[in-house]
């Protein structure tokens, strides 16, 4: 048996004891000193603007970073942070995350919406970053600790035809991916979601950017709905049954068309069928669930904390796709996952390339700590300019991603490099039907 002295000596050197010592030695008068907003576009890409939030405390060297990126409303979020939320933060104890979250949520009175919730999300991430640094622990430890060591992930492939999509899937399978999202350009159209545009559309898009106006895209639902089942028939015949396949509708069809498409895809056993309906059409998810077994994922466009609540409590979906940079940060992500747990609904947090690596790190911390994890989208392939700005990224290998064990979120920002590449004004496309009717992107 260990002697009492050796036992005490061992405990004093343990990670738990060291974290406790750091926490009790933290300044009792710890306060938020300033809130700084930095808008940067490291790669100078059309959808590459990041809205970063830095919360500085009165303890030298103790600060936190968050991601408040909201593509299409970046400067609105930045101004909202600076003018409406930051003044309510200065002087507050940064460790009181729950109290601050609800204070800032109710502060504007006309609350919620993409600008407000993205701003709040960035603040929330920065506060968790600070809390982890005070404790000397990674954020996932503060959320209950790891449930798993690695996170299943996927990437997207878009092509002009079935052969291009097949080639892309085979390439990702060779890189170790077990799940791939696939999109194809419908016949007769020159552009679509996550697929290569025609040279004419690319040229007109560049011209629109030069004029400072939104580019225009034409979309029709009928050729799309007829084409997608044929794509999956082709892929199952060519790449086999073992690879998990995802398809993203991106809310571009009507409720009746979504039902038709979901039923047509049943034989091809999708990993999931993503965003088949707009947030405005949530009641019609019941139509799909009653008549179809295709797994459904939804949520990336949600911004209100309780938006889509009935999709969970009525088990109308199988995966929640909320974006932690838009729905309230780490605090709300953990709560959404907990709400989903008794319904057997899994998490699949939104992880596109147009949110910064800070948000991707936040995604991973939550995904590692929840029991009902499903899959984590992660946009690998960051350019050198992005890697100059950010110090850490989730690590991809053999179909999964992992993160390190540094305190907080485990990521810092090279502010000088970020300021060299400022905001770039680029609008998302204005999608229309052939007759000019506005349509969701």
Task: Give a short overview.
With 441 residues, the chain is α/β, with parallel strands linked by helices.
Secondary structure topology:
Layout: H1 4-12, H2 15-25, E1 32-40, E2 50-57, E3 63-67, H3 74-89, H4 97-106, H5 114-135, H6 139-142, E4 151-159, H7 162-174, E5 179-184, H8 199-211, E6 216-218, H9 221-238, E7 244-248, H10 255-265, E8 272-274, H11 285-291, E9 296-298, H12 309-313, E10 319-320, H13 329-340, E11 346-347, H14 357-369, E12 376-377, H15 384-389, E13 395-397, E14 400-402, H16 415-419, E15 430-432
Parallel strand pairs: 4-5, 4-12, 5-7, 6-15, 7-8, 8-9, 9-10, 10-11
Antiparallel strand pairs: 1-2, 2-3, 4-14, 13-14
Number of helices: 16
Inertia-based shape: globular
Give the tally of β-strands: 15
CATH class of the largest domain: Alpha Beta
Question: Helicity level, as a percent range?
Answer: 25-40%
CATH topology of the largest domain: TIM Barrel
Query: What is the rounded distance between the termini?
Result: 67 Å
What is the total domain count?
A: 2
**How would a crystallographer describe the biggest sheet?**
10 strands, mixed
* Strand portion: 5-15%
Structural class, please?
Answer: alpha/beta
